[in-house]
Amino acid sequence: MSAPTEDPRQLDRADATAAVIASAEAFRNWGRWGQDDVLGTVNFIDDAKRAEAAALVRRGVSFSLSQPFDMNGPQLGWRRRTNPVHTMLDTGTDAEAGKQGFPHGIGGADDVVAMPLQCSTQWDGLGHIFDRGFAWNGRRAGDVVTSDGDLVTGIEHMAASLVGRGVLLDLGRFLRPGNAVGDGELPDGYAITTQEIEACIAAQGETSRLGRGDIVLVRTGRYTRARREGWNGYAGGPSAGLSFTTAGWLHRTEIAAIATDTWGFEVRPNEFDDAFQPLHQVVIPNMGLTIGEMWDLDALAHDSAASGTYEFLLAAPPIPITGAVGSPVNPIALR
Question: Does Zinc show up as a keyword for this record (predicted)?
């Protein structure tokens, strides 16, 4: 059987199922880290990789890569996803009125947040997507995720693991250098190819070289536009993103994880006539690749362009919510 194509023009738009099956079989990592594995490609981040990443911190500058978590966020109710609802339980007005019941004049404030775990900057866990009834490592989907949560690959297993060398690939600036506001932004529906990714790495230079265990961040400029013009379908609508044909590159580079500034990671609309997130279907349950979405990469991108340096220490642990299939995250890039 020939290897799946890396040329989007060769995709049969009428047959998403065949393309998913071929790529799943070609790039499957089931059993690679044992039958009990719960980390997938995050296994590529070892102690030596973390030590290498720590040595990249020289200036002491840090960047938060998270969007705000508030009621003004991008969600429009798709799949019952809402924006965070922040409610105060105790306030300063309660304290002033003496209603809190504490002695000697002490008062305080408490609050609570209710939100879907994937409503803003987040990681997709390995239990988030299934392929024809199977979850990561060949387990039956119904044996992994039930109404009690992800019983096997819950996001809590990655709480100490997602720290390592990050590399920013500013595809927006590379492919569309500059516009009216000076930031490269790819148009909606733009499918980023393997050839373009490799050309971007070459253009950005040595600090963009990728090795086993790296965490890759891809900036398309979609979030830049959302901040300027409003959400306008940011959550679930059209967007630039990775082409389905990049699955082979994601596999052979042995990266640990990848995140983008878009809602869906892969190009939207997808590259088939009748499909929904087919690249997710290949890389999460078959490859075991952890995906991040809705990251704010703009400040990091500006600093990267100014310094000519695209690597950094990335600390992006999920909240260890037991049994969750995803998690909010406040990723920190340090240089």
Answer: no
Same domain for 254 and 141, yes or no, is yes
CATH number at residue 174: 3.50.30.50
Q: In this structure, is residue 256 part of a structural domain? A: yes
Both 194 and 93 in a single domain?
no
The reply to whether 273 falls in a domain is yes
- 246 domain-assigned: yes
pTM for the full predicted model:
0.96
Task: Identify whether 1 is part of a domain.
Answer: no
User: Is residue 236 left, alpha or beta, with left meaning phi > 0 and alpha meaning psi from -120 to 50?
Assistant: left
Range of the domain at 247: 8-77+116-334
Q: What is the dihedral angle through the alpha carbons of 261, 129, 254, 250, rounded to the nearest 10 degrees? A: -60
With contact defined as beta carbons under 8 Å apart, do 45 and 163 qualify?
yes
Give 23's contacts (C-beta < 8 A, 6+ positions apart).
4, 244, 247, 248, 282, 286
Backbone angles phi, psi at 89, to 5 degrees: -95, -35
